[in-house]
């Protein structure tokens, strides 16, 4: 069996460029020199390892993980679930997936969020879980609301959940956002539109998943995540480069 | 026509946004939810080697500190081993080598405590100078930025480091070297990261 080697090159044309003028905050925060390309060393192909001692089983249930006993947050009850795969199509097991989001009114529980929609006393807005041996993960939560933000005078973020994923290598580290099928704000959002291609933008929209829904209880959305794949070292690399 | 390649494509990145702390450091956002927040102890109690503090600012193109940034650190132990099955060798019990760092919301200053890493194996031959890998996310950063922190007092190792040496402009290599000082009996390394402008920090496509 060939050993796994370096990661496939990240397709920078699929990701947003650093400088995206219509997302104004990027203008002063984007490096102007080109990134220096590194072939992977041990520093890039390794990454932190997490286990079930690091988290609690309730951490992936945003309906219960901050609610007072017997109460629950206001909003549409949803399941967000899917698989973490690599570019070779293989599941990524035991990897940490963290999520954070606004409440159903579009307000974040954060000391820097001053939007006039109220905080929900029963909603924290964050969760985390480890994928199982098949790369599968799930969260239960309430559907986040849209909210306004300062960019153009009248910008609204589509409903979204932020997701942070580790993989097995620090070079796979990824933060992204999951949107919801049918939301008319997606196509108007300057942050969504930092991603150049429509196909790549569509890959961030979770599909309504009636089969995954629990009748009379919770509606489901399916959201698969793909991390960078690794080459198999069929032949040793030439001894050059960094 | 040809056969279709069946590779999947990586999920595109989106900014971590201004409220990244809710997800990754909820205590800093202003509430307690988890029994254990992850990433606050990089080295653990049993790590050998020199105990150090690393501190700095992330500075934007206007010269202002970025106050809502979150950094992650990934490093080897003092023997040069990463806490990972492919990490080169054993590490001390409790050594994770990974940490999360957030800023003071008023000043933008960040700091973390750890042990100084050892030299790690090079990609093919030789060794890499001691370094800490950093990953930086914030509102306005569309794809997390990767850089490396090297140590001022490792002059010889730095001069031979394969990664520093592929940076064509010698003057830019200096942006990756943390400055060493001693304060109240503690070793402190200063590492300011400039996102753009004069002396922009070197960022890597890893």
TrEMBL record, chain A:
<comment type="similarity">
    <text>Belongs to the intradiol ring-cleavage dioxygenase family.</text>
</comment>
<feature type="domain" description="Intradiol ring-cleavage dioxygenases">
    <location>
        <begin position="45"/>
        <end position="229"/>
    </location>
</feature>
<dbReference type="GO" id="GO:0019619">
    <property type="term" value="P:3,4-dihydroxybenzoate catabolic process"/>
</dbReference>
<dbReference type="Pfam" id="PF12391">
    <property type="entry name" value="PCDO_beta_N"/>
</dbReference>
<keyword id="KW-0223">Dioxygenase</keyword>
<keyword id="KW-0560">Oxidoreductase</keyword>
<dbReference type="InterPro" id="IPR024756">
    <property type="entry name" value="PCDO_beta_N"/>
</dbReference>
<dbReference type="InterPro" id="IPR050770">
    <property type="entry name" value="Intradiol_RC_Dioxygenase"/>
</dbReference>
<dbReference type="InterPro" id="IPR012785">
    <property type="entry name" value="Protocat_dOase_b"/>
</dbReference>
<dbReference type="InterPro" id="IPR015889">
    <property type="entry name" value="Intradiol_dOase_core"/>
</dbReference>
<dbReference type="GO" id="GO:0018578">
    <property type="term" value="F:protocatechuate 3,4-dioxygenase activity"/>
</dbReference>
<dbReference type="Pfam" id="PF00775">
    <property type="entry name" value="Dioxygenase_C"/>
</dbReference>
<dbReference type="GO" id="GO:0008199">
    <property type="term" value="F:ferric iron binding"/>
</dbReference>
<protein>
    <submittedName>
        <fullName>Protocatechuate 3,4-dioxygenase subunit beta</fullName>
    </submittedName>
</protein>
<feature type="domain" description="Protocatechuate 3,4-dioxygenase beta subunit N-terminal">
    <location>
        <begin position="8"/>
        <end position="40"/>
    </location>
</feature>
<dbReference type="InterPro" id="IPR000627">
    <property type="entry name" value="Intradiol_dOase_C"/>
</dbReference>
TrEMBL record, chain B:
<dbReference type="InterPro" id="IPR050770">
    <property type="entry name" value="Intradiol_RC_Dioxygenase"/>
</dbReference>
<protein>
    <submittedName>
        <fullName>Protocatechuate 3,4-dioxygenase subunit alpha</fullName>
    </submittedName>
</protein>
<dbReference type="InterPro" id="IPR012786">
    <property type="entry name" value="Protocat_dOase_a"/>
</dbReference>
<feature type="domain" description="Intradiol ring-cleavage dioxygenases">
    <location>
        <begin position="46"/>
        <end position="197"/>
    </location>
</feature>
<dbReference type="GO" id="GO:0018578">
    <property type="term" value="F:protocatechuate 3,4-dioxygenase activity"/>
</dbReference>
<keyword id="KW-0223">Dioxygenase</keyword>
<dbReference type="GO" id="GO:0008199">
    <property type="term" value="F:ferric iron binding"/>
</dbReference>
<dbReference type="InterPro" id="IPR015889">
    <property type="entry name" value="Intradiol_dOase_core"/>
</dbReference>
<comment type="similarity">
    <text>Belongs to the intradiol ring-cleavage dioxygenase family.</text>
</comment>
<dbReference type="InterPro" id="IPR000627">
    <property type="entry name" value="Intradiol_dOase_C"/>
</dbReference>
<dbReference type="Pfam" id="PF00775">
    <property type="entry name" value="Dioxygenase_C"/>
</dbReference>
<keyword id="KW-0560">Oxidoreductase</keyword>
